[in-house]
């Protein structure tokens, strides 16, 4: 195995001043993905939402670190101009973990998914990440084998992931099964079911419910102290006022899945295709719910990072030697 040269990696990592100062002082930081800006929401909602998400992280008590790739660098923390650049430039490629080395070597921009953002957050020494809807097992995966690399990355990166469950377009029961098989610790915050992104409940019972963030932070730290690999998933539902009704949206999702299947759309573009189709079928209601749940989850992500940093000697204090 080649040795990792910390200097060479440090040259690639570009931390925003806010993130650098917070990490240096041991203050809480919450990492965020950028693919939702480039592929998840349309302009100008993507800019407004990305800025509102960062504000929500700050209101929760942490520094936001939106992650992206640009010109051979791993950006950790985007300023307003950078968010605008990513939100407006057309055809920025989606970069999951398999794509990361090529995106860096090639140069140019790349929008990181949950999976690749986690890998980069870990390198930077960030313990908490937030995104509304994680990837998961696609409907029809028994034939397509389409399982998001997000799920595999949870077994690799020691970063806690705050979310509102997996995207509703996925097979949420199978997603829970894969998480169980992979031994990914999953806790729901104040809710008895695994949440369903822009809907409240999935009908899948939560394997573990806790109602206070201090205990969740302690459990995350214990997972790592005990030598546990990978992350911990912390899932909380979208607020009731913003939630879509599961039954009402089911027909739109089923139609979207059927038409993508009929046209042979699969692979990395499938998630975006399904999300856009559901949005068109709901007159934009699903995008508005997506934005609302992103902001809600980011606020919780900020609060969890603060609760984690408040632990006596969090495991993450030994991280980040590279930067
Ligand atoms: N499309 C969206 N919103 C998103 C994503 C795609 O409308 O957030 C991204 C997220 O970054 C997530 C990824 O990590 O999709 C999962 O894609 P896949 O199923 O191809 O792994
Ligand atoms: Mn896939």
Detailed description of the structure:
The structure is a single chain. The protein is 47% helix and 16% strand. The protein has 323 residues and is an alpha/beta fold. The chain folds into 2 domains: 6-242 and 287-317, Indigoidine synthase domain (Indigoidine synthase fold), CATH 3.40.1790.10; 245-281. Helix 4 packs parallel to helix 14 (285-309). The longest helix is centred in the last third of the chain and has 25 residues, at 285-309. The radius of gyration is 18 Å and the shape is globular. The two termini are 22 Å apart. Bound molecules: pseudouridine-5'-monophosphate and manganese (II) ion (MN).
Which descriptors apply to this entry?
Indigoidine synthase fold; 14 helices; 323 residues; alpha/beta; binds pseudouridine-5'-monophosphate
Helix content: 40-55%
Question: How many beta-strand elements?
Answer: 13
**Please, how many helices?**
14
CATH superfamily placement of the largest domain: Indigoidine synthase domain
CATH class of the largest domain: Alpha Beta
Ions, cofactors and other ligands present here are: pseudouridine-5'-monophosphate, manganese (II) ion
Low-confidence stretches: none
How many structural domains are formed by the residues? 2
Largest sheet: 11 strands, mixed
User: Radius of gyration, rounded?
Assistant: 18 Å
Secondary-structure element series:
HEHEHHEEHEHEHEHHEHEEEEHEHHH
Strand percentage, roughly?
15-25%
CATH topology of the largest domain: Indigoidine synthase fold
**CATH hierarchy: architecture of the largest domain:** 3-Layer(aba) Sandwich
Overall geometry: globular
The whole-number mean of residue pLDDT values reads 95
Distance between the termini: 22 Å
**Structural class, from helix and strand content?**
alpha/beta
């Amino acid at each position: 195995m080649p040795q990792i040269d910390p200097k060479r990696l440090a040259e690639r990592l570009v931390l925003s001043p806010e993130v650098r100062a917070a990490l240096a002082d041991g203050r809480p930081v919450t990492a965020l993905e950028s693919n939702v800006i480039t592929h998840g929401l349309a302009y100008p909602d993507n800019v407004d939402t990305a800025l509102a998400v960062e504000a929500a992280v700050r209101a929760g008590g942490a520094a936001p670190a939106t992650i992206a790739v640009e010109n051979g660098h791993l950006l950790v923390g985007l300023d307003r101009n950078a968010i605008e650049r990513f939100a407006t430039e057309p055809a920025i490629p989606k970069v999951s973990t398999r794509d990361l080395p090529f995106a860096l070597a090639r140069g140019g921009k790349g929008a990181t998914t949950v999976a690749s953002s986690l890998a980069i957050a870990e390198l930077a020494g960030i313990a908490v990440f937030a995104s509304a809807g994680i990837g998961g097992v696609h409907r029809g995966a028994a034939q397509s084998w389409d399982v998001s690399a997000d799920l595999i990355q949870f077994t690799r990166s020691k970063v806690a992931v705050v979310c509102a469950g997996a995207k509703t377009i996925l097979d949420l029961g199978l997603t829970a099964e894969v998480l169980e098989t992979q031994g990914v610790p999953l806790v729901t915050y104040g809710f008895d079911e695994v949440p369903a992104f822009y809907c409240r409940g999935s009908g899948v019972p939560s394997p573990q419910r806790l109602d206070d963030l201090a205990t969740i932070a302690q459990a995350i730290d214990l997972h790592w102290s005990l030598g546990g690999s990978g992350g911990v998933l912390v899932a909380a539902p979208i607020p009731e006022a913003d939630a879509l009704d599961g039954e009402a949206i089911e027909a739109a999702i089923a139609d979207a899945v059927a038409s993508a299947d009929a046209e042979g759309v699969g692979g990395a573009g499938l998630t975006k295709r399904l999300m856009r189709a559901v949005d068109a079928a709901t007159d934009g209601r699903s995008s508005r719910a997506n934005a609302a749940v992103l902001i809600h989850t980011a606020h919780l992500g900020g609060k969890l990072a603060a609760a984690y940093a408040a632990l006596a000697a969090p495991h993450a204090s030994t991280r980040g030697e590279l930067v």
